[in-house]
Amino acid sequence: MSAIQPKPRDRLIVALDLPSLEAAQSLVARLGDAVSFYKIGYQLAYAGGLAYAPMLADAGKRVFVDLKLHDIGSTVAEGVRRVARLGATFLTVHAYPQTMKAAVEARERGLQILAVTVLTSYDDADLAAAGYECSVADLVAKRAAQAREAGVDGLVCSAAEATKVRDIVGSKLKLVTPGIRPAGAQAGDQKRIMTPAAAIAAGADYLVVGRPITAAPDPRAAAEAIVADISQSRS
Q1: Which of 21, 44, 89, 187 pairs with 211 at a CA distance of 20 to 30 A?
Q2: Active-site residue set
Q3: What b/e sequence results for 37-65 when a residue is b if at least 16 CB atoms lie within 10 Å of its CB, and e otherwise?
Q4: Above 60 in pLDDT, residue 182?
Q5: CA angle (200 as vertex; 118, 83 as ends), nearest 5
């Protein structure tokens, strides 16, 4: 894993996959200082949530904008520049060589580019249906190697592949793993999942957690339990 690790609390990224800006603001208020890092993805972004990114940054929180950019190079570059001006820490792009190259060249203001290898809702059958003739593991390995060569700052991958990906990219790139589920939690639409402690032990730097926190009766307690799990894992 990366040579310098943040504190356990700062390794948890809560996914604000909520229907409105008001709902996101209410959850952030409930979580208080238990959480320092938030992800804004499609659902909240398309509900006006991108405007929340600079507000979170001004409040001392870090922001992960998860838009998975993928387009012609000039369009990707303009998108990267716009997100950088929101004060975001992380931005995702799909791990295609041309897309990663454009994103890396356009990053500014401390924005870090994360390349998405294969979505954690995909398995080998899904790849076959999409026309790929390789396994998830093989495609992740190929894209990880391409991402390393492109000079991105990190990768988004399943925790199940974190150890193998770490061997490919070395210690400098950050590994961000979604599909994190505490023991006993439902998998939902994720297919390649892992517990927080196991993900950290596998080499993950940051864990993205959504519904186990956002849908919990006590979101703050749920977040604190995950941070405690991170603290007890061997990293």
Answers
A1: 89
A2: 68
A3: bbbbbebbbebebbebbebbbeeebbbbb
A4: yes
A5: 55
